[in-house]
Amino acid sequence: MALPVALQLYSVRDDFAADMEGTLKKVKEMGYAGVEFAGLNGKSAAEIKAACEAVGLVPISAHVPIDELVAKPEETVKTYADIGCKYIAVPYVIEERRPGASKFDETVEDIKMIGKLANKYGMTLLYHNHDFEFVKIDGEYGLDLLYKKVPAELLQTELDTCWVNVGGEDPSNFVIKYTGRAPVVHLKDFSGEKSDDMYELIGIKKEGPKRPSGFEFRPFGFGLQNAPNILDASVKAGASWVVVEQDQPSMGKTPLECAKLSRDYLKLLGW
Questions:
Q1: pTM higher than 0.70, yes or no?
Q2: Domain housing 255
Q3: What is the dihedral of CA 16, 195, 141, 73, to 10 degrees?
Q4: 3 state DSSP class of 264
Q5: Residue 88 is part of a domain; what is its CATH number?
Q6: How far, in Å, CA of 185 to CA of 178, rounded?
């Protein structure tokens, strides 16, 4: 059984910003069934919805910064509901908001509030992890602690399988661990090892000396991940969608070329 495959548009963000309609058309032609947003580039919900409908892409989800959701909760959630998104995801939290940090309790309460609003508009709130949630707090991963503190009806997982791996866990096992609470799984591949400058690849600068890094994101199926196992785990966990994401292009390819390589690989596996 194969699940529908979407593309996180952050992967082709410059193309999407320059030519929304043309980029969505190319994504559809690659064989993607849906898209996940990471910003709307000043477009209205009606414009985004019409552009997706025109090419036959399902707007499944959106990554929306938690501060944006907290600042204008109802307006922001409604915008994505109007587009037709079934899911809305918290993509990242700053250090003080993380498990074990000073504002983690505030984060939990904010997520509960956003989750209730999402439900009001017929949507489901997701949390998209990185590796920093894999710190242990009283013997328990911070990510597990978050999902323990927020009820499943208010928060589901969007497990990023690359960052789970970098965090030290087997991605397939971790997806299975959240069976019934893993509607969307991020397919992301990489090569190299964890290093000081990894977060620069997602636009987060860090001060101070760095050790050399060979870490880079790769098209799915072209790196170190056990792709077939992750896909099998996603099905067993009851996922509804898998989403390809590649934060930066690699292998001498453009972002669109990388997105096509990922989709072509999945087709070879019958997806």
A1: yes
A2: 5-268
A3: -30
A4: helix
A5: 3.20.20.150
A6: 11
